[in-house]
Every structure is written in structure tokens, then in C-alpha cells.
């Protein structure tokens, strides 16, 4: 499930006095109402908006249980990418060809990118979530894990309600408050919502043109570079300096080419672009070159495995071949990964939460320890590394 990066300030400004969370839920809602009125919303509107809000324990349960991201890339991508999704994606590309042409002209976002998000988030609008959105946002704002993310979304939903584009009793979506076919939070809708079908409203639940145009504008707002690639499968030489690989470690495309990196299909991007080599399951597994637009994916979702799968699926929807899975060394299961994270944390590395997920912090720590121990520094944790530690 998506976890958004911090968004632009809009509407009500959060102050220290309004940063509270926790406490009795009715008192928390009372505080939200007072804050909304102080920001200029009419009392009657605020009362109507919050009249039926309830705490939803199912939202908190979902927030604590995102185990799907523990799966390695090959397993995860094969689970999410099916022939049915490919066929439907290509059919949707034809059905909404005029909309995609507008997107490509106005925002420079290739259709495969949006089709992949549309597929993974809601199966092309088929399942958009059945959690009451206001309840979900208020529950998560009341919870003290990430109130700074979810509290502003409540007031954004209130503004949408005033515009006639949100129903506090009937608007539903994902457990984390995202709405519509490409799953956008209320504040994103206010900032990036586009009336793609010309009916005077931004309806991301029922209008594919609205959803796709809004998603494209949001990607552009997050830094998408018009007309540039995002990801490409490559082959890498066996003697590559593996310590140079990984997200955030950039050389120019020309430098990678000098080191023997070759595209499996087509040509590499122009030589001056910065790029990184991604080895999701180490030097013996699939290999990709990631261009600047790949980094924008992490503004949409912060899971490395999800991001890489979505970026690869966008390529597949535009005709690329299935990646070469190679023969990666066996990875670690959940308990083994937690043991590894504990050992790395004990050595002073910031691996974040000990959760068994191979995130960016754990990958960086693994690569550093591999280099220290004289192992191939490809950031893929194995039993050999765990035993050495």
C-alpha cells in the first residue's frame, strides 16, 4: 500500500498547537472541528462533514500488516504481472488512446507508466477499496504513527466536500485514505486533480480520463522529466565493480557503457544522463539501468520492490520482453532477515524498523558489510553474509 512523501502545504497550515494525536477519539474529533472552523470553514458544514465519523480498527490492522513487500522482486513481479493484466492494459491503452495522447503531449508521461499504476492500484478501477475514507483518514491521524501525513488529508477532504466532490458517508477507498482508480489522497486531488472528461468535476472513482490525467499531473508535479525513459533491462559483465551498483549511486550512461553495461533490447539512453544499476536479487539475478524518472516512483510509493515491479510492468505494457531472471543466490526468509537487521543495527547501521523487509537502509548496510568482508558488494543478503556476521 502506498505511503506518500510529504506534500506541498495547501489550505490549513499545521501548527504545533494542532499537531496532537491520540487521546479519546471524540475529543480528537472535537479538536479537528475547532481547527476547521478556525481556518474559515462554516460551522454547519464542519458539523455535517464530521457527523458520522468513526474510528475503524480494521484500518489500523491493515496498516500493521503489509507483509507482501517481504517478497523478493522475482516472486513479487510474477505474482502481480499476469497475461490477463497485460492484455487488459493493452486494451485500455487503445480504449483511452485520446486521453493518453493528451497526457503524453501535456505532461510527457508515457502511457505504460500510468497503465501500470492503474493495474496495480485498482485492477483498472475494478476494486478501489471499501474503507470509508473519512473514517480511515481520521483513524490514521488519531493514531500517533504518522499524524503529520494523515491529519492534513482530513481538511483536504473537507474542501472536496465543499466542492461537491466528496461524500463523508459514502466515499470509499483504500485503508490509507487513497481514492479512485489510481488511488490519490485528498490533498493530492486538490493540488493535481484534472477534469479530464470536461464535466466540471474531478471524479477519480468513476471517470478514467479524470483519474489518468490527474495521475499524470501528479507525476509531473513530483518531478517527472517529460519524454525521458525510467527503466531498462541490461546485461552486466561478471567483473563489474558491484559496490558501484544500487539506487542512488549514479554514473553517466556513457560511464556505465564503458564498464560493459549493455541493453538487452534497443539502445541505452543518451550518454550524459545520470543512471544507476539496479540488481534486485544480486549480481546473478535480473539487472536494470534506472534513469532519473525512476526516482519519481519513490514519491508515489516507497517500497523498492513495488516501485521496481511497476516500472518494469510499464515497459512490458509498451512491448518489452520478459526479463531474464538469471540464477540468483537464495535470499533470506523473514526471520532470517530480521536476524540480519538486528546484527546490522548492532554494528551501528540505520536499517529502520526490524521488520524483515529489505528496504533501502538494509540494502545499503548489506552492501557496506559485503565490501568490508571482501564479498561481492551487490547488496543482496544471503546466508553466507548472515553466517559471516
UniProtKB/TrEMBL annotation:
Q: Where is the Peptidoglycan binding-like domain?
A: 334-388
**Pfam families, alphabetized:** PG_binding_1, SLT_2
The keyword Ribosomal protein is annotated on this UniProt entry: no
Keyword terms of this UniProt record: Signal
Please list the residue ranges annotated as the Transglycosylase SLT domain. Answer: 25-314
Q: Look up the signal peptide feature and give its range.
A: 1-19
Q: Which BP terms from GO are recorded?
A: peptidoglycan catabolic process
Q: Please indicate which superkingdom the organism of origin belongs to.
A: Bacteria
Q: Which GO terms describe its molecular function?
A: peptidoglycan lytic transglycosylase activity
**InterPro entries, per the entry:** Lysozyme-like_dom_sf, MltB-like, MltB_2, Peptidoglycan-bd-like, PGBD-like_sf, PGBDSf, SLT_2
Q: Which PANTHER family match?
A: LYTIC MUREIN TRANSGLYCOSYLASE (PTHR30163:SF8), MEMBRANE-BOUND LYTIC MUREIN TRANSGLYCOSYLASE B (PTHR30163)
Per its record, how is this protein called by name? Lytic transglycosylase
Biological classification of the source: Bacteria, Pseudomonadati, Pseudomonadota, Alphaproteobacteria, Rhodobacterales
Amino acid at each position: 500500500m502506498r505511503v506518500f512523501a510529504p506534500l506541498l502545504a495547501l489550505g490549513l497550515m499545521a501548527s504545533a498547537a494542532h499537531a496532537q494525536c491520540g487521546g479519546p477519539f471524540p475529543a480528537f474529533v472535537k479538536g479537528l472541528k475547532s481547527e476547521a472552523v478556525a481556518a474559515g470553514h462554516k460551522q454547519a458544514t464542519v458539523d455535517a462533514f464530521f457527523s458520522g465519523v468513526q474510528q475503524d480498527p480494521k484500518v489500523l490492522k491493515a496498516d500493521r500488516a503489509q507483509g507482501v513487500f517481504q517478497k523478493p522482486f522475482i516472486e513479487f513481479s510474477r505474482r502481480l504481472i499476469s497475461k490477463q493484466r497485460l492484455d487488459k492494459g493493452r486494451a485500455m491503452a487503445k480504449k483511452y488512446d485520446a486521453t493518453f495522447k493528451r497526457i503524453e503531449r501535456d505532461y510527457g508521461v508515457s502511457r505504460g507508466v500510468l497503465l501500470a499504476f492503474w493495474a496495480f492500484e485498482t485492477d483498472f478501477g475494478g476494486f478501489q477499496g471499501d474503507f470509508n475514507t473519512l473514517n480511515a483518514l481520521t483513524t490514521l491521524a488519531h493514531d500517533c504513527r504518522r499524524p503529520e501525513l494523515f491529519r492534513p488529508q482530513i481538511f483536504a477532504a473537507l474542501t472536496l466536500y465543499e466542492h461537491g466532490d466528496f461524500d463523508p458517508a459514502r466515499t470509499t477507498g483504500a485503508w490509507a485514505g487513497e481514492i479512485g482508480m489510481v488511488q490519490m489522497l485528498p490533498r493530492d486531488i486538490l493540488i493535481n486533480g484534472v477534469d479530464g472528461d470536461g464535466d466540471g468535476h474531478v471524479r477519480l472513482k468513476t471517470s478514467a480520463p479524470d483519474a489518468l490525467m490527474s495521475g499524470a499531473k501528479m507525476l509531473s508535479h513530483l518531478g517527472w522529466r517529460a519524454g525521458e525513459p525510467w527503466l531498462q533491462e541490461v546485461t552486466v559483465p561478471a567483473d563489474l565493480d558491484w559496490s558501484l551498483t544500487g539506487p542512488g549511486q549514479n554514473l553517466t550512461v556513457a560511464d556505465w557503457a564503458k564498464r560493459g553495461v549493455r541493453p538487452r533490447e534497443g539502445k541505452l539512453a543518451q550518454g550524459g544522463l545520470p543512471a544507476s544499476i539496479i540488481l534486485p536479487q544480486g549480481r546473478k539475478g535480473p539487472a536494470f539501468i534506472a534513469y532519473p524518472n525512476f526516482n519519481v516512483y519513490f514519491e508515489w510509493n516507497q517500497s523498492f520492490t513495488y516501485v521496481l515491479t511497476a516500472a518494469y510492468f510499464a515497459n512490458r505494457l509498451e512491448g518489452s520482453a520478459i526479463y531474464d531472471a538469471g540464477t540468483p543466490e537464495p535470499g533470506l526468509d523473514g526471520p532470517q532477515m530480521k536476524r540480519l537487521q538486528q546484527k546490522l543495527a548492532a554494528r551501528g547501521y540505520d536499517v529502520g524498523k526490524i521488520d524483515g523487509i529489505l528496504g533501502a537502509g538494509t540494502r545499503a548496510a548489506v552492501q557496506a558489510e559485503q565490501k568490508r568482508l571482501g564479498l561481492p558488494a551487490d547488496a543482496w543478503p544471503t546466508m553466507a553474509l548472515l553466517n559471516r556476521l
